[in-house]
């Protein structure tokens, strides 16, 4: 989020002006200065999301400050609720004979994968509402206020997610569809979301499926990058204007790339695969690894680029119904552009491709439309660029040094048949 964007949002401006007071307030509530800063960061991410969604503005400065502090307090409450849930089930992990046998464990891993694939296909707000209400137990009214929607809309989001997950479970199990009410009851029983008073083997499975041992959200603003360490020694590096959600569970490690691009350095763990989900308008793309180094980037047109630096990577695409569409494996030096659209052409694997070259200050284009190239460079350009539709279709290839992105725009007439003009603080690109 840029400083200009922050200044245009009353809530973000209030967060900035009240930051020191907010951290002191959170430190008193949590008893830990480090946790207070973490909660403050999570608060900023929630506020930034609201601003991007165009949530209803507050009426005055005092109202904005109260909203910011209330949101931060609720995040602390959510953390304590999660910690209590974890403590109630932690003893099961150490108890002898409570884990499933190998066959049962495989079955539940497959079920979890089906659930995750289904949730990856719903809109991000729907997924968040479902998980935070049915898994974390957050109040529907609070969620409605945060997302700027009605309680009825919260209920519709939960129903949509539950129907989508249940349909995926039926495909996995091979059973016939059941009635809507029965489906929701079955799903609640399967995931344990109808209530948390479980014990023994069921508690063990609940822990491994639904309770993250660690979670974090990270985001970058214009022309910024960020390296986020992971608890197992790996790391995620974010490109400019990127956003990722991370969570580690007892049996899996997960990430959701919501915007931009990220490079993942994953420590090998054969018992806990690392899964990156990229939600798209018509489905989702999933990348699964055990331990490797690879880059993932969201592209215009609902496409996703995957580039592998080392190791083996499995790439899948899913439709809006959660059904699998494409499955490919990539090795070191290979890259592939994939989409969740139903009528996409089969993805082509390219060799000799550097993974996430933006880490070295470069962006590479290979026979892409000019509009896509400019859209990719907006993360770094100091001024806006308007590309007329006819010019946007022209194709080009080459490498651009990020620090000289504006020089690339200025030099476009020597590369493709266009006219470039700088006026009123913005660039215009038109076909000749």
TrEMBL record:
InterPro entries xrefs: FecR (IPR006860), Ferrdict_sens_TM (IPR012373), RNA_pol_sigma-70_dom (IPR014284), RNA_pol_sigma70_r2 (IPR007627), RNA_pol_sigma70_r4_t2 (IPR013249), RNA_pol_sigma_r2 (IPR013325), RNA_pol_sigma_r3/r4-like (IPR013324), WH-like_DNA-bd_sf (IPR036388)
Stretches assigned to the FecR protein domain: 219-314
GO molecular function: DNA binding; sigma factor activity; sigma factor antagonist activity
Residues annotated as domain RNA polymerase sigma factor 70 region 4 type: 114-163
Regions that span the bilayer: none
GO biological process annotation, one example: DNA-templated transcription initiation
Domain called RNA polymerase sigma-70 region: residue spans: 16-83
Gene3D superfamilies named in the record: 1.10.1740.10, 2.60.120.1440, Winged helix-like DNA-binding domain superfamily/Winged helix DNA-binding domain
Pfam families according to UniProt: FecR, Sigma70_r2, Sigma70_r4_2
PANTHER family given in the database record: PERIPLASMIC SIGNAL SENSOR AND SIGMA FACTOR ACTIVATOR FECR-RELATED (PTHR30273), PROTEIN FECR (PTHR30273:SF2)
Protein name, as recorded: Sigma-70 family RNA polymerase sigma factor
Organism: Alicycliphilus denitrificans
């Amino acid at each position: 989020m840029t400083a200009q964007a922050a200044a245009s949002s009353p809530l973000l401006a209030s967060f900035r002006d009240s930051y020191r007071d907010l951290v002191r307030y959170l430190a008193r509530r949590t008893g830990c200065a480090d946790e207070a800063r973490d909660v403050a960061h999570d608060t900023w991410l929630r506020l930034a999301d609201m601003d991007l969604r165009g949530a209803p503005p507050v009426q005055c400065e005092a109202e904005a400050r109260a909203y910011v502090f209330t949101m931060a307090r609720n995040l602390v409450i959510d953390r304590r609720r999660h910690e209590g849930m974890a403590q109630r089930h932690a003893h099961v992990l150490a108890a002898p004979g409570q884990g499933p046998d190998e066959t049962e464990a495989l079955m539940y891993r497959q079920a979890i994968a089906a659930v995750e694939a289904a949730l990856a296909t719903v809109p991000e707000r729907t997924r968040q509402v479902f998980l935070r209400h049915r898994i974390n137990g957050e109040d529907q009214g609070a969620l409605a206020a945060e997302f700027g929607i009605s309680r009825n809309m919260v209920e519709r989001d939960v129903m949509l997610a539950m129907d989508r997950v249940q349909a995926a479970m039926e495909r996995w199990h091979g059973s016939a569809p059941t009635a809507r009410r029965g489906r929701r009851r079955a799903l609640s029983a399967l995931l344990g979301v109808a209530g948390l008073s479980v014990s023994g083997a069921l508690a063990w499975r609940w822990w491994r499926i639904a309770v993250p041992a660690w979670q974090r959200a990270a985001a970058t603003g214009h022309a910024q990058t960020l390296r986020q360490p992971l608890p197992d020694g790996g790391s995620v590096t974010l490109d400019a204007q990127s956003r990722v959600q991370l969570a580690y569970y007892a049996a899996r490690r997960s990430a959701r790339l919501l915007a931009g691009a990220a490079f993942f350095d994953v420590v090998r763990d054969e018992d806990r695969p690392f899964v990156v989900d990229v939600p798209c308008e018509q489905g989702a793309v999933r990348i699964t690894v055990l331990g490797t180094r690879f880059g993932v980037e969201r592209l215009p047109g609902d496409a996703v680029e995957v580039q592998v630096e080392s190791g083996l990577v499995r790439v899948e695409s899913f439709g809006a119904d959660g059904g699998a569409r494409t499955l490919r494996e990539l090795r070191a030096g290979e890259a592939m552009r994939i989409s969740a659209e139903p009528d996409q052409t089969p993805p082509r694997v390219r060799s000799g491709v550097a993974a996430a070259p933006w880490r070295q200050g470069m962006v590479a284009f290979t026979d892409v439309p000019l509009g896509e190239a400019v859209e990719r460079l907006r993360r770094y350009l100091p001024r806006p660029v308007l590309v007329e539709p006819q010019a946007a279709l022209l194709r080009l290839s080459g490498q651009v040094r990020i620090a000289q992105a504006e020089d690339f725009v200025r030099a476009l007439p020597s590369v493709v048949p266009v006219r470039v003009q700088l006026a009123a603080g913005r660039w215009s690109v038109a076909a000749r």
